[in-house]
Amino acid sequence: MELRPLGRTGVKVSPLCLGTMMLGAMGNTDHDDSVRIIHRALDAGINFIDTADVYNAGESEKIVGKALTGGRREHVVLATKVHGPMGDDPNQAGNSRRWIMRAVEDSLRRLKTDYIDLYQIHRPEADTDVEETLGALTDLVRAGKVRYVGSSTFPPSQMVEAQWAARERNLERFVCEQPPYSLLVRAIEQDVLPTAGRYGMAVIPWSPLAGGWLSGRWRKGRKAPTSGRTQRFPERYDLSLPFHDRKLEAVEALSLLAEEAGISLVHLALAFTLRHPVVTAPIIGPRTMEQLESQLGATDVVLDDATLDRIDEIVPPGTNVNPTETGWSNPDLVPAARRRQPRP
Q1: Measuring CA to CA, which of 64, 131, 239, 313 is 20 to 30 A from 174?
Q2: Of 271, 229, 291, 283, residue with least CA distance to 79
Q3: CATH number of the domain residue 241 falls in
Q4: Total domain count, the chain
Q5: Backbone phi, then psi, for 65, in 5-degree steps?
């Protein structure tokens, strides 16, 4: 695979990033098979792996750590994330210095490594000052435990706030943003992607197959497929909801377009995200070897302008088929107390 720059870091990464959320209890529970999937991806030229402490309560990080033994670690750009709850204690989560300093040690141990290439804040947190978070991350970089830091699913205003806080306080800046992006979820084209471009941030989109909607299994007139993901997040796949019916209509039109182009819907979806000039590497998240093999060839597909124009007709630029799927929510809207004056 032809490598791409990770923002302005000078690091080179493959145009596909291997995500591991589906390796472990939520997806593939066979650790040996999961390791084989990771090794196949590495052998195919992928040198970029993304995970998170919260994926399967640390199990996915352990699988990655097992897969990268035997000299493979030094050839991989390894990314993980912190923020999600890792226990019942309310302080075992979030973006505070207290938790970040503890969480990174746990991740390092599970990953069987002494440094993390890209350490990302999994979600913004309204009640934690971004300078608190960046200060902790800066100390980790200076200690050699982390090489670069990034954000995930940050709205554009908070992306800018973090960049300015880093500049004003001489702190490490986020070099990467990880937002949701697919043929069905295009709202980030309006502001997130331009903001990332202006600050030279790499973009590694999650869910380029829209949580499986673009896998080829979801088609009109067919029985809705079931999986661990659909059972865990039923509201994302309930076909009685009007927006999901619109998704099926869009998927049908995109499937026909893929057939006309002589490619699979999976390749159409991944090639679409790869064509955006700000995108570095979409994150693929296979559960099986078959799923991985079906995605690897997408890097050889280049969509022409006519095909991209047809896609724009099906799902207009800068829009989500389901407007509620932004990937993030405005913290100033929930709870109601944040947007109402207290009673006198």
Answers
A1: 64
A2: 283
A3: 3.20.20.100
A4: 1
A5: -60, -40
Q: In 3D, which of 145, 153, 150 has the Cα closest to residue 113? A: 145
Residue 344 lies in a domain: no
By the 8 A CB rule, do 286 and 295 touch?
yes
Q: Which helix (H) or strand (E) element contains residue 4?
A: strand 4-5
One-letter amino acid for residue 299 of the chain = T
Answer yes or no: 148 catalytic: no
- Across 225-249, b (16+ Cβ under 10 Å) vs e yields eebebeeeeeebbeeeeeebeebbe
pLDDT in tens, 92-102: 999 999 999 99
Decide: 321 and 247 in contact? Cβ < 8 Å.
Answer: yes
Amino acid at 193: L
Looking at the whole model, is its pTM more than 0.90?
Answer: yes
In a domain, residue 170? The reply is yes
Q: What is the pLDDT of residues 145-172, one digit of tens each?
A: 999 999 999 999 999 999 999 999 999 9
Residue 252, in any domain of the structure: yes
Closest CA to 325 of 153, 169, 170, 166: 153
